[in-house]
Amino acid sequence: MKRKVGLFLLTVLIAVSLGATIVASLAMYRLVSRLQDEELRRIETSLSQRFDVFETMLRSENRRNTAIMAKVMPQIEADVERTGRPAADLTIDELNALSARYGVEHIYFIDRDHRVFNTNLAYDKGLAFPKGGFSDFLDSVLGKGRVMSDGIDLSSVTGTLRTYTYYGPPGKDYVIEASTDVRTTLKQSDFGWMGQYFFEDYFPDAVQSNAYVTDVDIYLINSSGTWSLIRTGEKLAPLLAAEVLKEGRLQVPDPAGRHVTIYSRYNRADVIKDESPLTVIRKVTYDLSLAREAVMHVFVSSMAVLALMLPLVYWLASRLLQRRIIDPILNLRGEAGAIAGGDLDHAIANTDRRDEIGHLARSFASMRDSVRSRINDLRETNLAIERFVPRAFLAKIGKPNIVSVALGDNKREHMTIMFSDIRNFTALSETMTPDENFAFINTYLEHVGPVIRDNGGFIDKYIGDAIMALFENADDGVRAGLAMLDALEGFNGCRAAQGLAPVAIGTGINTGSLMMGTIGELHRMDGTVISDAVNLAARIESLTKVYHVRMLISQYTYDHLADPGAYAIRPLDVVVVRGKTRPVVLFEVFDRDPPPEREAKLRTREPLLRGVEALLRHDVAAARTCFEECLALAPGDPAAANLLKSCPSDA
Question: How far apart are CA 63 and CA 363, in angstroms?
Fold first, then answer.
């Protein structure tokens, strides 16, 4: 045991140390991860704030450019008119010359059908705009003689930021569109240096502000895609952009698990009047190595300390454990073995200690006393239970004790059933008080109950003054019935000494198959036997009153006797018992009748038996002869008279 405890202690120390190391490492990882997440949020906020400034600058530039184009667009139309040719006939060179002269990048001529019928951007010539918001805008410009701006947007080809201005010359059926590159116009403005700073340094320097940020970007969304403002011409994958717009925020780790890229949607909360807000997607790529390095540092340091300190801690802990815990526990084990061996008076050591071992020892001593008391109580309880549920009944249904009995347990058996009842008990009980009634019944049962157990039976239940008992075989039942008559003589002798009248009993016995088991409900059960044989035994007992005899048995019991001739038994009648349809031969057991009556009944036994055998063979004539012979031997014999009535007169 000591070696096992030592191994256990070592295992516990290692497990606790490793557990503490892992917990500390995970705590560090969570801390660093939380700090990283906060840093990512700060970077995203910074990008948003920078974009707000950038957007304000773009809108300011757009307003400046719109004011310039309000003068330029009519001049372009005037130059077209001076050529003397339709706008559709202008060559690319002529259009390029116009673009260079007025500082625009591309010029478009759009007809009433929203189709580009001429432009200096060759691959856009013939482009038709579908009906929608933009086509409605073109219709609002057509022929109005006003210069209108559609704001800043991204080129669907290059992804660069552009301003788009529109002019509908009066009396013309087309609209002139001019686009300018924002970067170009910013360079030409008084704040050209600021435009260059915004595009080249303002956003990328977020990478330089944090050692673990490896990349940032801002993507502007328009109808042609999601374009980078930092890397001109670069687009975000459409499915990824759609998911970010739907979720609002998305984390995408790289396959190696070293970096994570955060995409988040943003548009400024303070919407500028008369201008729709721009929606962008922020991108921040972060190196995860910081959290891993912190975890590895904590883990390696902890393992080093563990390797150095574990041997010393183990030696000290094992010595203390040996002296304070293991030895006392071994003592308790020996004491437990003695108690388990039946020595419930064995002394328990260490009960004077004021620690857990002392508490355990005192609890063990208390347990010893409690076990001793419980064993005594259990022994008495078992004896008490057997008074209500006979052990023989439990054995019959295959249960070792009352605890294992469940509702519905049952078993089929072939047994002999006895019912015994006190004659005229109702009239007798009316002369007694309730207390006297209980005293009378208990005194009676004290006399007759033991003889049932002495003859191999057990009492299944008491039914008021009646007894129901079960026996393994028919001979035990008959012997018990005769012994009960003997015991009744002693009981009546006691009553005679008190000046009380004697009592009589009637006993009915039947043999057959029955079901033994439990009936009732979950919280109230009872053991009982159920079968037609039980009902027949009860009916036979009631017939003792009709025939004025003390003991009757059925043909089935008679047939199961080892030697019927060993008893004073004779047939009494063939009847159909109430509730039955088949006739049953009843036999009178008259061993305890007065000698003269017993001798008279013995003389008629053989003829009666022959007559019953003939009657069962349906030989009515022979049966009648036998019964008449009995009447000749004993005139007025009720058995012969009863059986003679069972013979049909016309046979």
Answer: 92
Overall pTM > 0.85: no
What number of other Cβ atoms are within 10 A of residue 226's Cβ? 23
Per-residue pLDDT tens over the stretch 493-515? 988 898 888 999 999 999 999 88
Q: ∠ CA 112-114-116 to the nearest 5 degrees?
A: 105
- Residue 338 to residue 344: CA distance in whole angstroms: 8
Of 324, 316, 234, residue with least CA distance to 281? 234
Phi, psi (degrees; rounded to nearest 5) at 421: -140, 145
Cα of 35 vs its chain's centroid, Å: 40
Per-residue burial over 575-614, b if 16 or more Cβ lie within 10 Å, else e, is bebeeeeeebbbbbbbbbbeeeeeeebeebbebbbbbbeb
**Within 10 A of 146 (CB to CB), how many other CB atoms are there?**
14
Q: How far apart are CA 368 and CA 260, in angstroms?
A: 66
Count of CA atoms in the C-beta half-sphere (13 A) of 137: 16
- In order, the DSSP letters of 73-87 are HHHHHHHHHHTTS-G
Could you say which DSSP state residue 115 is in? B
Within the chain, all domains assigned CATH 3.30.70.1230 are found at 391-562
State which amino acid sits at residue 473: N
DSSP type of residue 500: P
Q: What is the residue whose two structure tokens read 């563990």?
A: 306
Residue ranges of alpha helices (H) inside 214-341 are 238-247, 289-321, 327-340
Q: Which of the 8 DSSP states describes residue 472?
A: S
Q: Which two tokens stand for residue 252?
A: 């995408």
What is the architecture, at CATH level 2, of domain 20-287? 2-Layer Sandwich (3.30)
Task: Map residue 190 onto helix, strand or coil.
Answer: coil
541-580 pLDDT, tens per residue?
998 888 888 999 999 999 999 999 899 998 988 887 766 6
Query: Which CATH number is associated with domain 391-562?
Result: 3.30.70.1230
Could you please report the per-residue DSSP string of 24-86? HHHHHHHHHHHHHHHHHHHHHHHHHHHHHHHHHHHHHHHHHHHHHHHHHHHHHHHHHHHTTS-
Residue 569 pairs with which residues in a beta bridge? 589
DSSP for residue 583: -
β-strand pairing of 551-554 with 505-521: parallel
Q: What is the pLDDT of residues 334-378, one digit of tens each?
A: 677 777 766 767 777 777 777 777 777 677 677 777 777 776 665
> CA 231 to CA 85: how far, in whole Å?
42
Q: Which of 268, 232, 199, 229 is nearest to 48 (CA)?
A: 268
